């Protein structure tokens, strides 16, 4: 496979060689080949050979050069997660009321499903946060229960996504979680909160309450819009100050254009060291978006350096990376990131991340004078 001589995240030039690999496969399908000659410090020469006339008897590619169709890159989850470890009612919902149970612990998910059945509700289980919004849009559940301590996405961010999406905002969401600060979700629009561990009888009461609420209100099923909706105002971000650290000016421009449309003040830096200098010299930055793949000082080192500075130790840092491999989110968190978003950036997810982390940043800033007074 084609690859750069420098394979580190701090390399000067971007690109993984994927385009060249695709071009080579196309050349082979045409009966030709793609060759490369490269010398460090001098340059590269690419030569494409293709036949000028087709041979009718040729029904397959040349021996020794079979076309390859296997995907050796990142595994990206589908909109509707597969591989469920809990047998639920997804194939037998019909028109009956049902609850979408978002819980990554299969054992506790089974307990919740049984409690839902006792309360007269059917249940569909989502054992991962990724894809939950798409599932909720598609299935339109009667209610949702949500664990905040999900392994692949911050539960607070997922709650924010669900409550700000026009197709799911009407669905009551009851948080069942053991995560600290779970009580704050009421202000984010949660229907109620139950802290783990919870007794079976208490869980049955939760689902009964959700069923009775649904029967009393019976909201009309939301239809999927045929056209993209106009951007909605985001008052929670008005006046926020966000730093973007990215070596690609195109990414800076596109993200700045989006954020400024929501009245966000955007600062930018084209490298890790410059980003750190801006943070040290600028007061009131609410959050920073840090690209991982940058020359000289990559995003991992940038975040580690930021965390070593006491004044910036609590600043929300959102890692932005083109990699979508399993474990990348945890690697970013270990380096000091507060959260993580993959490229291409999903704007709705980015807005949810910023709403949650800007709110936390402002809460922390407001609490500092009170602590100093004590």
Automatic annotation (TrEMBL):
- Cite the EC number: 2.7.13.3
Q: Which UniProt keywords apply?
A: Kinase, Phosphoprotein, Transferase, Two-component regulatory system
Domain Response regulatory intervals: 98-211, 241-358
Q: Tell me the superkingdom of the source.
A: Bacteria
Q: Which residues carry this modification: 4-aspartylphosphate?
A: 147, 291
Q: Reaction catalysed?
A: ATP + protein L-histidine = ADP + protein N-phospho-L-histidine
Q: Name one GO molecular function term.
A: protein histidine kinase activity
Q: Does the keyword Transferase apply?
A: yes
Which Gene Ontology biological process is one annotated for this entry? phosphorelay signal transduction system
Q: Extract the InterPro entries matched here.
A: CheY-like_superfamily, HATPase_C_sf, HATPase_dom, His_kinase_dom, Sig_transdc_His_kin-like_C, Sig_transdc_resp-reg_receiver
Boundaries of each Histidine kinase domain copy? 1-54
Protein name, please? histidine kinase
